[in-house]
Structure formats: C-alpha cells, structure tokens
Amino acid sequence: MAVAGSSYQRLPVLLKTGGRVWQAWSAMGRAQISTAPASFSRQNAVGPMQIQKSGMATAGPQNLPKLPVPALAQTVSKFLRLAKPITSAGELDETARIAEEFLASEGAELQALLEQRAQKLPNWLTPWWLNAAYLEARTPLPIVTSPGVLFPKFDYFGTAEQTDFAAKVISAALQYLDNMINCRIPLDKAGNVPFDMSQYAFLYGTTRIPQEGKDRLRYGFQEKSLARHIVIARHGHFFNVPVFDEKGAPLSCSQIVEQINKFVLPQSESVNPHQIGIVSSDNRDDWARVYQRLKRNSGNEQSLEAIETALFVVCLDKPTTHGPDRTDGDEQARQSLHGGGSESNSGNRWFDKTLQFVIGHNGYSGLCYEHTPAEGPPVANIMDFICDQFTANSFTTKNAEAPFASVKKLEFSLGDEDKEAIRKASEKMDAAAGDVELKAYTFKPFGKNFPKSQKLSPDSFIQLAFQLAYYRMHHKHPPTYETATLRKFNEGRTDTIRLPNPESAAFVEAVVAGVENDKRLAELLRNAIEAHKQYSMEAMNGQAIDRHLLGLKMTALEKGLKLPKLFTGAAYKKMQHFTVSTSQVPTRNFLRMCFGPSASDCYGICYNPQEKELHMVVSAFFSCPETSAVKFVQMLEMSLLEMEVILTRGGARSKL
Ligand code: COA
Question: Which of 452, 453, 616 to mutate for ligand 1's pocket (most ligand atoms within 8 Å of CB)?
C-alpha cells in the first residue's frame, strides 16, 4: 500500500529550501534545549511544541511547568530513609550526623544557589545531566550507554529478503519522520498530563561527535536543511544512499532495493579489512584523537560528514551463529547492543549515530541507539510504528519521479596509526562483547493483569520481584536504579526511583526467613509496593533525591566550594553504586530493549510489562563470579510466582 500522497506533499518544499515546516520543527527543538548555540536567536524560532485539543503535538509552545527544586530538609530526610537498608548501624549514625551538619551549614547556601539557577534556566537540571550522564563520560558507548532494541522476529532469510526487509524498515522510518515534520505524533502523556515532546526532534540526523574531555551533539535539526540520505553499512563498508529525490519525494521500497542491489551489495561483497566504524566503540578520548586525525584528510572529512548528517544508519549484517548456551533472542540482543564482536558485526556499526537500525540476515533485527539525545520511549515509539507498518503492509510503493543522487561509497584513507587504532578497538570490543551476558526472557504466567487485579501498581510489583530475586541470590539488598521520567516538566529528562526502602527490605527479608504466614507476607508486600509507588509518583513530580543531590553537588563544584561531607560519606558512595539498574520501556508490539550493567558486579534490566506477559532482557558480566543473568532470571521467575501466591493466599489488605 502506498503512503498517502498528502503526507509527503510538503516535503519537497522543505527539503529543497530548508523550508518553513522543517524550520518549525528545527526551531521547536532548538528553542527547547538550553545547550543551543549562542548564535541562535529565540526570536527567530517558531517556538516549541504546542498541544492541540486533538491530542497531537504541533509546532508552538508547550508551556509546561518548570522542574522544581525540592525542599532541602525533605531530600535529606528521604536520603536517610533510603540509606537505611544498605548501611550498617554505625554508618547510618554517622550519616545522620553528617546530614544534620549539612542542613545546618553548607546545605542552605547550596540550596539557595540552586534555586537561583532554577529561576534563570528553562530547566536547572537538563544541561548538567547531559554533561554528567553522557557527554563528559569517557567510557565506550556500546553496552553501558547505548541501549539495544529488539524487533519481533520477522519472516525473512538470506541477502535478497534482508535487503527487501531493510527497504521496508527505511520506508517506515521515513514515514515516521514525515509524521514528525507534519506534527502528527500523538502527544505522550501520563494520564491527562502532557509530556515534553522535544526529544522527538532530536532523533533523526543526529550524531554524537567525539571530543577529548567532552563530546558534543551534532543535532539533525540544527543543520541548514534536512538530509536526503541515510547511510547503509555492510561488511564494514559505508554507503551514502539517497532516500528522497531532488523534489523531496521519498524513494519507493523497490527503488531503495534497486539502489542497494545495484550499488551497495556489489561493492561490499568482501569484508572490509580496515573497519573504521569499530573505533567509534572505543573510549571516547581515544576515538576523539583518531577522529581528529581522520578529519585532517579532506576525503575522510567528506565521508564523516555524510555519516554525521545522515538521517540514520542501516546496518546490513552478515549471518551470525550461536551455540546452545544462547537462544536466538540472546543473540539478537548481542547484535543490537554491540554487534557480537569484531569477527561478527561490531565493525559494521557507527556507534555515534543516534538511530542505527540493525538488520540481521535471518529474520532478527533491531536498533542500537545513542542515548544522549533522548530516552527509550520516543525511540520505542518509532519501533512500534515500524512494526505497525509491517502489520498493515503500509510502505511507500509510488516511485519518486524526479532524479535523485547516486549511491556513493564512503571511502576512508587510513594511515598506520588508524589501522592500529582499529586493531586495538577490535580487541577491546571483543573482550567487552565476550564479557557481557545477555538473557532475553519473557515471563508468561501473567503480565500487568495480575497486579492490577490485586489493585496494585504493576511496575512496583515487578520492582519488588527484582528485589526479592536479588536478595535470594546474593543475601543483601541491592542499591537499585529505576528510571523515572521528568517529561511532565519543560525539557525534562529523568530522575531515579530508588530501592531498597525500609518496606521493601522488610518484605524480602520476611520471605527469605520463611517464618511469616501468607497473610502477614501479603501485608508486607502491599506496604512495600505502595511505598515504591508513592516514591515513583514523587519522582515523576520532581521530588526524588538523586537529581537534587546531583544539583547541590554540581553547585558546590561550579562555585569552587568545598564538597560537603554528605557527598563523600559511606552512605552516599554505596547509594551511587547501582547494583541493579532498571528501566521500564512499554510498547504495543513485542519489543524488548537491553543495556549492560553499570559496573562489573551489577545487573542491567530493561523490561516491558504487557497485559499478559512480561518481556525483558537481563544483563550481567561473565567476569564477575557472583552475578549471573541466567540465575537471576530463574530467581525472578520464582519470585514473581511466589508473590502471586502470597497475594492470592494472603488476601486483600485487612483494615489496620
Ligand atoms: N490498581 C490497578 N491498576 C493500577 C494500579 C492499581 N493500584 N496502579 C497502576 N495501575 C495501572 C495503571 O493505571 C496503568 O494502566 P494501563 O496499563 O492501562 O496504562 C498500569 O497499571 C501501569 O501502571 P504502573 O505499573 O503503576 O506504572 P506506570 O505505567 O505509571 O509507570 C513508571 C511508572 C515509573 C515506570 C513511569 O512513570 C516512568 O517514569 N517511566 C520511565 C520511562 C523511561 O523514561 N524509561 C527510560 C528508558 S531509557
């Protein structure tokens, strides 16, 4: 089925001239991000997104509230409460003393300075967060920072069908872009509360540029005009592939297939012996030095330019195999997260690119995305949309009629130092890919329906299961990170929903001790779930502790003040070591997301609770003898089933 002509009618204008619609879309992104270049004049902007009654996001101001600064005493009191289950009695006493001192001394000054910043900026947190969480981090992007997303298995096999499938993914991704440009993306909400939509504008055409000390984002919306090409990678070769004609009409699927067959496949039959893309998986400073050297050659510079401005990258991967220790889903997670190592497909990637579709040879496909510009949900919405187009078989079938640029192979002229950098980066990638254990898992006995039937929050129920599984396995409470969205605020990104808390600790200890009856356990479980839900709501309302404490710390650092003892004490340090990092990314289709653990002895869990099943990928590192993703999944399954029994047998909450 052809894409409705009307949806593309405005593209020719905007593509040719960088016209009004594109500018509006660009402007909404620019106007919303505090890190926009100084040269940008807000007066020129059409303005950020506007919400219409239809529930669609359109260009125009969204007028969302500003992120508040929580009260200092409230944060300190929550900090002490959350420190309790993971500190010894002595550490807790010492922390309480330090906290009291902090409130009576430096705390008030830092709080006042932070409140001043909050008055001045559209969002006091987001620019700091982008730097602290992403741009200043020197660690490699794949595995820990950049998540992988897994499409459902599609029915295709071999190069010809892989090409056909890739063309459909490209076509659907371009339809989504068109929806974005024409403001047809449904507004994201929590209940009736609208979310900041600006992250959508940051996804296409965006690349993270490596720089020593601190990277920068090169946003697609800041380019003079929208790119008309994507980049296709195959066997470690890169190609600039046009996807719009000169008048701005999108190429049909068969035209894209023709381009791939005619130009990409014949020029990429043999594996590139020098796969420069793999260096983008290296430590950011190392990659930055190689990148700078590459740029000094004008041919390389043109190739880099084509990759950086491309709307997205599509990786046509070579066949993969796996032994009995992995399922197809586990292998799919590996390919999406890191490409399986240099002998597999890690060299067929450009990890700096925000959107990188990974198209396997055997029906398995997904996406690897660079996390800096956006959280999972906008990306997952693109993936959901693409799945919907496959269900509806709705792709562009009308051929573009105007001429379009020809496919161009992107050449890189590499010296010995660059080849050495490729060798070193390959070695590091192989070690990292070999170390990360990924278990793709679906829990089938129930989904959100069971906790809902018990009048409990499904998310909190699942989080309690993570706590119980971990405690069973490791006999201690794990400092746990769960992403809370702050998108109800202008330019909002995330805060942290923390566990354990005293209620969750009481529940898991009671279950493992095995002395309480089901009625008492059900009571403890309900208390724990409600305490978690309460904190989740506080977090979404900007009242969690993690980003507030970060803000106070950043204030001290920026003003050259002495770092308060609160930030150097045992409790704070323990609380920053997230033994379990989790994120919920819900979707309509069967999509799973994955990311690596935050440190060597930790777990990463990305989960997608659907009505009747819970999908997730659990990660750990093989090099840590204590952790195991496979065992964790077993413990989790046991915990979920046991919690079902506890609630069913233990009955509803009795009136206290
Ligand atoms: N009784 C019955 N039903 C309940 C309930 C209760 N006590 N509490 C919640 N529910 C229902 C909700 O109405 C909702 O219904 P729906 O399935 O029809 O939508 C469903 O259960 C899910 O609610 P809940 O499990 O409580 O979670 P949530 O959807 O509100 O999500 C967070 C909570 C914290 C995960 C979410 O707000 C958030 O911040 N997500 C972050 C996403 C993100 O940015 N991820 C980053 C990835 S990089």
Answer: 452
Domain range for 373 is: 148-436
Lowest mean pLDDT of 57-66, 324-333, 447-456, 579-588, name the range.
Answer: 57-66
Distance (angstroms) between ligand 1 centre and the Cα of 314 equals 32
What is the SS3 string spanning 4-71?
Answer: CHHHHCCHHHHHHHCCHHHHHHHHHHHHHCCCCCCCCCHHHCCCCEEECCCCEEEECCCCCCCCCCCC
Q: Same structural domain for residues 155 and 97?
A: no
pLDDT band at 144; cut points 50, 70, 90: confident
> 369 and 262 share a domain?
yes
Same domain, 419 and 529: no
Asked if residue 45 belongs to a domain, the reply is: no
- Full-model pTM: 0.92
Tell me the average pLDDT of the chain.
91
For ligand 1, atom 8: residue with the closest CA? 457
Among 334, 319, 239, CA closest to 277: 239
Instruction: Summarize pLDDT for 268-310 with one digit per residue, the tens.
Output: 999 999 999 999 999 999 999 999 999 999 999 999 999 999 9
Q: What is the pLDDT of residue 41?
A: 24
| Ligand 1 midpoint to CA 359 (Å) | 31
530 and 381 within one domain: no
Catalytic residue ranges = 371
Domain boundary among 436, 457, 491: 436
What's the gap in Å between 440 CA and the centre of ligand 1? Answer: 22
Last residue of a domain, one of 419, 436, 453: 436
